[in-house]
């Protein structure tokens, strides 16, 4: 299935349960066009935009500089609410996982990972996943639907609500993402549920608003998009968004990678790695990240490591080594610590930066590859 037909079949609902249109998600010209239908001038759209993205208000009544009749109109026709929090879990290591219900009741998981000098929010792009990677918990849940641009942005906005990170009166929005400003949420990773590049249009729309200095003002150097290897959209992402690229690799040859990640049958390693070599802006300063999960007796031998050094030759990159995070019924085990360290040493001796990622949020199933919701795809009715 093509990305365009995929987007059509699994599209997000255009309105909420009350028939209201989300005002989170449209870009400013689109918002101006929508409000112009009601005879509202362009400067009113800019005011609404400011309240939504600069101040983080959650209801139209809080937009103090709008006329009362305009606020009533907006409340009737449009929505700016956050998702419903179904559950919040906090790990012993400080990681927070939210199970969020969208306006139609479909659910996704979002994870905030605090660190000493930064805080990273892991965002979902789909309810479920279109892929069936064997080691990933999300991959056991069939794709239900794509998330709309508003639902992707709502995850960030919810995290800012919880962390208290909307600016106060007189405070500049640009201080949000400035570590010196004392903000906790500094980085965004599109690494949650789903394959972002199979929902490219909505992801791109949301990230453009993220990166807009008058939007959420999160610089593109602080945003990383992770893909399992949707080659055509990798090039498109680099050309249009310019965000950091992370690639789920997990094997150094086509035979094994196709067993672990069926998408490799469509986009084999030769095509995938060529797209990485030609990714716009890639350099020794701005490297691609390759993610490699360590599966005991599957992909963790010295020979696997040596193959990896060869196929990545010439690509400015680092290799994130990820100890497998166990989930119920996975059928895999994590490689032993000594094996992981030996694997990393081979990569490092070949000149690669190969850090071993410290697992976060394992106790609440919030670590890499553990996310999943109970949402189900609606049955099709035959006419």
- Percent of sequence in beta strands: 15-25%
Write down the CATH class of the largest domain.
Alpha Beta
Question: How much is the radius of gyration in Å?
Answer: 21 Å
Report helical residue fraction: 25-40%
CATH superfamily of the largest domain: Aldolase class I
Alpha-beta classification: alpha/beta
Please render the helix and strand layout as text.
Elements: H1 3-9, E1 21-22, H2 28-36, H3 42-54, H4 68-77, E2 78-79, E3 84-90, E4 96-101, E5 107-114, E6 119-122, E7 126-127, E8 145-146, H5 149-163, E9 187-190, H6 200-211, E10 223-227, H7 231-240, E11 244-248, H8 254-260, H9 269-277, E12 288-294, H10 302-311, E13 317-323, H11 337-349
Parallel strand pairs: 1-2, 6-9, 9-10, 10-11, 11-12, 12-13
Antiparallel strand pairs: 3-4, 4-5, 5-6, 7-8
Helix pairs in contact: 2-3, 5-6, 7-9, 10-11
């Amino acid at each position: 299935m093509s990305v365009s037909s995929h987007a059509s079949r699994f599209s997000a609902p255009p309105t909420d349960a009350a028939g209201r249109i989300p005002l989170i998600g449209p870009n400013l010209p689109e918002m101006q066009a929508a409000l112009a239908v009601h005879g509202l001038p362009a400067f009113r759209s800019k005011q609404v935009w400011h309240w939504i993205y600069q101040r983080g208000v959650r209801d139209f009544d809080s937009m103090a500089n709008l006329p009362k009749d305009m606020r009533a109109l907006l409340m009737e026709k449009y929505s700016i609410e956050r998702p419903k929090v179904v559950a919040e879990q906090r790990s012993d290591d400080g990681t927070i996982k939210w199970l969020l219900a969208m306006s139609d009741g479909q659910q996704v998981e979002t994870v905030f990972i605090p660190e000493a000098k930064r805080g990273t929010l892991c965002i979902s792009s789909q309810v479920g996943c279109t892929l069936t990677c064997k080691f990933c918990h999300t991959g056991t849940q069939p794709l239900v639907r794509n998330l709309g641009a508003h639902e992707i942005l709502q995850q960030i906005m919810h995290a800012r609500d919880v962390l208290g990170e909307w600016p106060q009166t007189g405070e500049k929005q640009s201080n949000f993402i400035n570590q010196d400003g004392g903000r906790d949420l500094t980085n965004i990773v599109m690494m949650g549920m789903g394959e972002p590049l199979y929902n490219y249009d909505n992801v791109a729309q949301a990230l453009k608003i993220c990166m807009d200095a008058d939007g959420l003002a999160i610089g593109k150097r602080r945003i990383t998009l992770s893909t399992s290897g949707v080659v055509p959209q990798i090039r498109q992402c680099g050309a249009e968004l310019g965000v950091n690229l992370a690639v789920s690799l997990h094997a150094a040859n086509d035979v094994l990678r196709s067993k672990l990640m069926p998408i490799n049958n469509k986009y084999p390693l030769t095509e995938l790695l060529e797209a990485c070599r030609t990714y716009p802006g890639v350099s020794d300063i701005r490297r691609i990240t390759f993610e490699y999960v360590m599966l005991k007796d599957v992909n963790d031998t010295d020979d696997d490591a040596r193959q990896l050094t060869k196929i990545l030759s010439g690509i400015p990159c680092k290799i994130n080594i990820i100890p497998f995070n166990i989930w119920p019924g996975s059928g895999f085990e994590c490689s032993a610590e000594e094996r992981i360290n030996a694997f990393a040493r081979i990569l490092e001796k070949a000149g690669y930066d190969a850090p071993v990622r410290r697992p976060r949020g394992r106790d609440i199933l919030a670590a890499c590859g553990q996310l999943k919701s109970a949402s189900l795809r609606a049955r099709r009715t035959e006419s």
